[in-house]
Design a protein that fits this description.
Layout (H helix, E strand, L loop, with lengths): L6 E7 L14 E2 L2 E2 H9 L5 E6 L4 H7 L3 E4 L9 H11 L4 E6 L7 H13 L5 E6 L2 E2 L4 E4 L3 H9 L5 H5 L4 E5 H4 L12 H7 L1
Parallel strand pairs: 1-4, 1-6, 4-5, 7-10
Antiparallel strand pairs: 2-3, 6-9, 7-8, 7-9
Helix pairs in contact: 3-5
Amino acid sequence: MKTDHNITGVVLAGGQSRRYGSPKAFATFQNKPFYQWAVEALTPHTEKVIVISHPTLTRRLQDIGNYETIEDDSAVKGQGPLAGIYSAMCHHSSEWYMVLPCDTPLIDEKIVGVLCAHAVQGKNSDAVVPTAAGKTQPLVAIYNRRCLPIIEKLLADGQLRMMDLLSKIKVEHIRRDEIGTSDQAFININKKQDWEKLQ
């Protein structure tokens, strides 16, 4: 069920998948491409879903999807996930942006729903970011539009790590047990061996 707040879903599918060896967005789990798992997890809780695509994949994604597919803004092209979030914020005005990478196919709509609810009911946090497996998970997180000028400055300064952003904004951290899920849900598929274990 969608919240009353304006939330845009953002799927980060613009990486080059060097370690995986082929575009991870189109790797499959249970006969469904990874990016589709992300889209379906976001859709029940967002007004719109935007897929941030690598230039080599844009046409293919546009041909098979009924959601908006864009590439990084030309000024920040190829500068990682921070550039993808920046591009989504520049492209579509929203109060919140719920971000998912295309390579965490076990993230489901329940997890997304908890993060969205915490964001809109929270105490003026700029982001709600889960922790799982002892790690902060900044790419499975929701960010307020207030972050846009900070992201823009970080990109201009060449500070491209997501942790650089988290160090400069007000973050509500939420443990995966508070979400009601397992560490396994946050498994990130980087290599073919990871995919084999997932299957």
